[in-house]
Structures are given as C-alpha cells and as structure tokens.
Design goal:
Helix content: 25-40%
Shape: globular
Distance between the termini: 15 Å
Radius of gyration: 14 Å
Order of helices and strands: EEEHEHHEHEEH
Number of strands: 7
Strand order of the largest sheet: 2-1-5-4-3-6-7
C-alpha cells in the first residue's frame, strides 16, 4: 500500500499552531501519522485518517498543511485564523509549512501528487505506511497492520 518512493521521510521544520517549533522526524516522540494537505478543501480527506487513529494511543498525529511561499508574508494572519477555529489539542497537532509546494512534495515525500498524503513514520523517520487520498477500508487495515507491527 505504500505510495512513497522512499523508506525514510525527508526532514522539515515548522511551528505548530500552538507555538511549538518542530523538526520532523527528529522531534517525533512516538510513531506518528503525518497527514499532508495542500488545499483547504482537503481537510475532509485528512479527517478520514484522523478518525482511524482517534482512539489509538500507540500513535501521534500531525496535520501538515503545505502552503506556497507566496503566503509566507501572511503567515501570522493565516495561522491565527486557523488556530482561532481549533481546540488546543488540534492546534498542538497542526503545523503549517510555507514553502515551494512542488519541491516539498518531491524532497520530503518523493511524490508529485496533489492529493493528501498520509504517512506513518517511526521516531527514526522510517516510513511504515503511506497512502494518497482519503482513507479506504483497505488503507485503514494496512495502517492498523503497520501499527500492530510496532513501528
């Protein structure tokens, strides 16, 4: 089920909407499901993945909206607007990355796709599972199997 062309996720840094600076994968404390989205309308697809791991304390979650560099000057406004509509837990697990989106997808994920990308990584950055788009029954099963293997 893995769609990435690599075994280790690329390193990237940003700040969560709760104000914590993070470098992925270096600062991950537990195996983490990273959900990369590129457009606001993709939040519903991200939410399908969050539902799969909502009650699983073996895995952390990090939502990663990836926005183009042109939005960087408005970061405080965009991040503030997003944060104002979230509870503290959601702010803590959301980190916006302002960058060259195509280059980010290629360098960090190794894909050219514009669909959301869900990636389960261990604390060492090893990719245990990845999929594009909203969750499917087969993808949910594969994700749970990866967690059962002890990522």
């Amino acid at each position: 089920m893995n769609v990435l062309d690599r075994e280790v996720i690329g390193r990237f840094s940003s700040r969560t909407l709760a104000g914590r600076d993070l470098t992925v994968p270096d600062d991950l404390e537990v195996p983490t499901l990273l959900c990369f989205a590129y457009q606001q309308r993709q939040q519903g697809d991200v939410d399908t993945w969050l539902a799969v791991v909502a009650d699983d304390d073996r895995v952390g979650v990090l939502e990663v909206p990836v926005l183009g560099r042109r939005w960087r000057p408005a970061r405080a406004f965009i991040d503030g607007g997003m944060a104002s509509n979230m509870d503290e837990a959601t702010r803590s697990r959301t980190m916006c990355v302002y960058t060259d989106v195509d280059r980010f997808r290629s360098r960090v994920l190794g894909v050219d796709e514009t669909e959301i990308c869900a990636v389960l990584v261990g604390r060492d950055g090893q990719v245990a599972f990845s999929a594009l788009g909203p969750v499917t029954p087969a993808a949910a099963t594969a994700l749970r199997a990866a967690l059962d293997r002890g990522t």
